[in-house]
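Tokens in:
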């Protein structure tokens, strides 16, 4: 046994220090980024915020709404081939650049992935997603997928440490998804004791990835536009959102009424709700590692997007970054013991 005494930080442990700036208005800030990738020849341009591949977030409807604003969606892996055929036959212009097809590491998953690409070979992104990206089998699967799809952009995760980011990039991933345990409906830290505070995970993993010419996605733990700004400030190339995009018209999840008010169900992909829905129950050798919650219905996602993008533009003006690309360079975090004033919170 060994103990690391360095303090690891989460979003709540820091704020971003304002800096002198020549920017006059938020409208001068450009949130679009252009990425070239380590392995794939694809060039991607857009606002690097992603809907998570959860069936209550990363839906086809969400992809359509986000793509119109040039944001990205990792489509969840539970759509049938018939659903994919319908969606791809009506695919709105440009959406194929802004979606990833998600897959697990089973043979069934990889066969389904191949079928989706048969319907539309122009889809560019694959998201290989497992809860624990530390297994040898996972790195091997990434390698096989790279051999099969030399041109596609491969996202792989989740991990939280630099050495595993490097291994996945060297195995063929272009982008590594970072986050174990910070998610809003995740119970991994409670059930297993395993995890890593998200801000430190981003800082360490971004450093490892950028050293090799790869990118990272900060996945999980953002509860406000300010957290998204901190994730970018820490070095994330992309930020993935679950809970912040749940509860909208475009999100999945059953609509419920409670005391006359509308709610939508939102659950972790390892929750018993998800396992009962997709694999017929929780297998007897495992525990559920996700929660099921009801979130207040939030209307169309457009309003939330404006809040997020407006907040992020404002962060950039506070530190003098005219482009999102400059935010990390212009970020100084200060360690804090307080965040917002909650005197009027009920
Ligand atoms: P959020 O933005 O809601 O804080 O986090 C979303 C992320 O939580 C997802 O992208 C995924 O990585 C993670 N997640 C989703 N469902 C589960 C689950 O059931 N268990 C765990 N451990 N993580 C989950």
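Residues out:
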């Amino acid at each position: 046994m060994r103990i690391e005494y360095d303090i690891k930080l989460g979003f709540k442990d820091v704020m971003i220090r304002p800096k002198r700036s020549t920017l006059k208005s938020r409208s001068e800030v450009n949130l679009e980024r252009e990425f070239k990738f380590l392995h794939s020849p694809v060039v991607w341009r857009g606002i690097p915020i992603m809907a998570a591949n959860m069936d209550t977030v990363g839906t086809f409807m969400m992809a359509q709404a986000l793509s119109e604003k040039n944001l990205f969606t990792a489509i969840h892996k539970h759509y049938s081939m018939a659903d994919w055929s319908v969606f791809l036959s009506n695919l709105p212009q440009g959406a194929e650049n802004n979606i990833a097809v998600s897959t697990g590491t089973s043979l069934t998953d990889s066969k389904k992935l191949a079928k989706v690409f048969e319907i539309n070979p122009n889809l560019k992104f694959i998201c290989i997603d497992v809860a624990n990206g530390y297994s040898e089998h996972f790195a091997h699967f990434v390698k096989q997928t790279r051999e099969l799809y030399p041109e596609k952009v491969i996202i792989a995760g989740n991990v939280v440490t630099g050495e595993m980011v490097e291994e996945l990039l060297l195995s063929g991933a272009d982008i590594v998804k970072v986050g174990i345990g910070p998610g809003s409906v995740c119970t991994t830290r409670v059930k297993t004791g395993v995890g890593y505070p998200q801000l430190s995970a981003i800082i360490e993993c971004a450093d490892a990835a950028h050293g090799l010419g790869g990118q990272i996605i900060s996945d999980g733990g953002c509860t406000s536009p300010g957290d998204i700004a901190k994730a970018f400030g820490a070095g994330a190339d992309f930020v993935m959102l679950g809970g912040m995009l749940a509860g909208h018209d475009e999100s999945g999840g059953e609509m419920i009424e409670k005391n006359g008010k509308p709610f939508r169900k939102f659950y972790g992909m390892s929750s018993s709700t998800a396992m009962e829905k997709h694999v017929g129950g929780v297998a007897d050798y495992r525990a559920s590692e996700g929660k099921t919650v009801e979130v207040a219905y939030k209307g169309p996602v457009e309003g939330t997007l404006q809040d997020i993008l407006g907040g992020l533009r404002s962060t950039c003006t506070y530190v003098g970054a005219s482009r999102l690309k400059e935010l990390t360079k212009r970020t100084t975090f200060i360690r804090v013991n307080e965040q917002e004033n909650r005197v009027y919170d009920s």
